[in-house]
Amino acid sequence: MAPKDEFTVSRRDFFKTAGVGGLAAGLIGPVELGAQSGVAEVGPGAVPIQLTVNGRRHSLTVEPRVTLLDAIRDRLDITGVKRVCDRGTCGACTVLLDGRTVYACSILAIEAQGRDIRTIESLAAEPALHPVEQAFCEHDGLMCGFCTPGLVMSTTALLEGTPNPTAEQVRQALDGNICRCGTYVKVLEAALATKGGRRG
Ligand code: FES
Ligand code: FES
Prior knowledge:
Blueprint: H1 11-27, H2 30-37, E1 47-53, E2 56-62, H3 68-75, E3 94-97, E4 100-103, E5 116-118, H4 131-138, H5 148-161, H6 167-173, H7 184-193
Helix pairs in contact: 4-7
The protein binds FE2/S2 (inorganic) cluster (2 copies).
């Protein structure tokens, strides 16, 4: 038997206490949390934002919950960026944010304001293909093509920072991009064959 003044909690007491705590936590809504953190709140309704995509500034109105992927594809009609898993696992939606790869499905559009956003359309310049795109074509680095814009953007980001990567560096840079058609060997060849990743 426990000493009289020892702190003991019965199973019933535990659940009663946890229930009160959970209720208290549930009552701390966005307004209260925002006031506590000092972070300005927006939404849940649509708010005006500005995005700079491929060098062009766009003004749009979106709910704060809208992802960068949805804003780019559905609102700006820039469809080179692909939605496949929509949960940050496949890399099909890869874009460059200030030169670094991100999954556009996994960040909010509102978070990308003031950043330089680049999609695969930024590489296009008629009539020549970008060297990375050219290499993908020459080395058969694509089949169905759903993963290709993401792989091209990840390859471009790598080559802009590391013009002559090793095979291991290519593998590491592209390990967040899944190709269900299994073009990995060809993509590796394409990346290694591209010098600099910049237009000559
Ligand atoms: S669609 Fe974004 S990671 Fe798959
Ligand atoms: S080419 Fe089909 S998923 Fe990669």
